[in-house]
Write a structure and sequence with these properties.
4 helices, mainly alpha
Length: 117
C-alpha cells in the first residue's frame, strides 16, 4: 500500500507540474490562454488527490486521524481551479487577472499541502 501511495504522490506532483508549467509558460504573453496542459494537469490533480485522500483515510490510525480540514480545503481549491480552467478553455485568451488567479490558486494549493501541519 505504501508503494501505491508513493506512486500516486508522484502522479499528483506531475499534475501540479503540468498545471503550473502551463501557467508559467505564458508569463510574458499579452493574451494568455488556458492550454491543454493546464486542463490535463488540473484533472490529474483532482483525480490523484482524491485517490490519495482515500488511501490516507483508509490507513488512518485512531490515535492519528486524517486531517479532514486540510483535505477539504485542498479539494475545494482544486475544484475551483479545475472549474476556472475548464470553463475558460473555449476562449482564445483570458484576462491577465484570471490567469493570475489560476496561478495563485495553484501555488496556494501546493502551499497548503506543504505548510499546513
Amino acid at each position: 500500500m505504501h508503494l501505491v501511495y508513493q506512486l500516486l504522490t508522484l502522479v499528483h506532483l506531475i499534475g501540479f507540474a503540468a498545471l503550473l508549467g502551463g501557467c508559467l509558460v505564458q508569463f510574458r504573453d499579452i493574451a494568455p490562454e488556458v492550454n491543454r496542459t493546464m486542463l490535463v494537469g488540473a484533472w490529474i490533480q483532482l483525480i490523484s488527490g482524491l485517490a490519495l485522500a482515500t488511501i490516507i483515510e483508509l490507513n488512518a490510525e485512531p490515535s492519528d486521524p486524517a486531517n479532514h480540514a486540510k483535505l477539504g480545503v485542498k479539494l475545494g481549491v482544486t475544484a475551483i481551479v479545475l472549474l476556472l480552467v475548464a470553463k475558460n478553455r473555449k476562449f482564445q485568451s483570458i484576462p491577465k487577472g484570471l490567469w493570475g488567479l489560476i496561478t495563485a490558486l495553484t501555488l496556494a494549493n501546493a502551499g497548503i499541502a506543504v505548510l499546513w501541519i
